Here is the input.
Amino acid sequence: MLTEQDRQLLTAFIDGELGPRQRKAVARLVRKSREARHLLRRLQQDAHAVRALPRPALPIDLSGAILDTIKRERLQPRPEPVLLPMPRQFPLWTGVAAVASVLLLVGLGSYLFFANPWRGETSANPALAENNANENHTDSRTEKQSDIQKDEQVARTDSPATSHPPKNPGTPALHPDPDEKHPLPGELVGPPRPEGSNDTAFGAPSRNDGSVGYADVLIPSLLRVRELPLEPSRTELKTQLGKGTAFYLELLPRDGTRAFPRVQAGLRSAGIEVHADALVHARRKQEKLPTNYLFYLEDVTVEELVKILTQVGAEDVKSEKKNRAEAQFNTSHANLIVSRLTDDHRKILAGLVGVELRPIPPGTKQDGLPGVDVRKELSEQTGDQVVKSLGKPRGRQALALVYTPLTARGGAPEVKQYLEARKPVRPNTLQVVLVLRGLGR
Amino acid sequence: MNADDQRLIAASLQGDTSAFGQLVRRYQERLYHTVYRLVENADDAQDVVQEAFLHAYQSLESFKGDAQFFTWLYRIAVNTAISLKRKNRVVLSIDTANRNGEGGADPLDPSEETRPGHALEMAEEERRIQHALNRLSPEHRTVLIMKDMEGQKYEVMAEVLQVPIGTIRSRLHRARLELRALLEQDEA
Here is the structure.
């Protein structure tokens, strides 16, 4: 059986950075241990295989695009170095230990919370604590039971889809955690549980009644864009889109730039104009440079979105009739993936546009910052731009950006203009992030 | 530092962007080889290389010339690639397999062996190795690629990744054993 030290010696030998004494130690080890010989041989094979991986040629000269960007963005060498994300400085085990500690605390907290039937008495709410202290004089178990029943009654009327902060923050046991987050005006809450949905999964027992709860999960749908005119595909898409209010769609054409006009035409068919930033225009001119694009749209109904995507497929068929090489979605595999817009998608979107985008609720008077999450910090400049825009009426627009998580476009004037032009959405409409990801010609 | 690089850097700092263009042309290919293996696909690799050059251009004044320009550039690119990998971990993406198949860049010398069976075997072996590499953490993958593909010394790797040599050694140790375990799993 090899020790950890033996293994270290063998891997360092493969690295080729051992001194003469250590090399001799390796020689001794492999002479006496069959296991060491076997491991060394396999490690050498692995290193050879990695070394033998083909070295891809750079398909195009990037210097033109880089110099264009420098010119267009007026980049200059700065006296201070640009901050770069650095690799993790801590060993992996510190992260694992931190996560384990948090989980332990959460588990312990949950246990204490659920295990204590009189948790209303121990609320962290000072008003409640005082109230309970007074009540303790009576020490009546019946009264406490009655309080809890009242609380539960109130809690039942507070449905998840319409939950608001409690009218009386001091109400005991209604929200035992005073720091519990409640949806803010303008924040989208999860959709009500769909009737008869087969995408729900059993979860932990409900906090209120001890019955089995559910986790609302949307299994991504895989479709083909060119099949959307057919009833089964269209119905499946409609059904999926009917299950939520915010979606992340991936369209997988052969080439992102060539497929861009298809999406543009589809959006136009629904009366939505594409508002693209300068980088999009630049990339569309550089057809040889593979580029992925992101479209952000809101205030679009399920029917409109189905129509847009059907139109994308129809445009593709039309263009293929003119020139077969122009077809982008004539692939045998699925090229449309429909999934729920997750917090991670939102983070990436926020990274690109500079603010977290949430639809402005219907009927909102624009006396706040339209469409901007009020809990998030907003740069002064963006804030000013947005405030200036109040009440500017415009048609519906979709924002188009080059999709690379590395390229934040928050400062681009086109993005600011788009933010300025946003309006409250219509009821029952969707928020959609559509990514056009080229798979290679 | 290479005198020619020094001259081009000085010219770039004077505002001569074409001099920076020459630096890009000089190093883009080499940088791309490494980054491609780190990020798994051609599009992201090109984006990372571009971003790395743009970062480098903006930070040019802070480059003191005590290391090779390429080492400095390489550090920026590797960190950008690791950062991208971390971000991409959370994004729903189903195209990796496709990219490795249809959309990936071609090997430099695809005609090396013409026997169809051999080509298939090689492609399968490459897929297997790349698949296992992709399952390593960005840190482990990075050190393996730097060592086995680039032939970098511990010392240079430590400078590029800005960690102690001991960390490089132990990361490589873990990375090799992890890769071995993954390949064994695949073989089973």
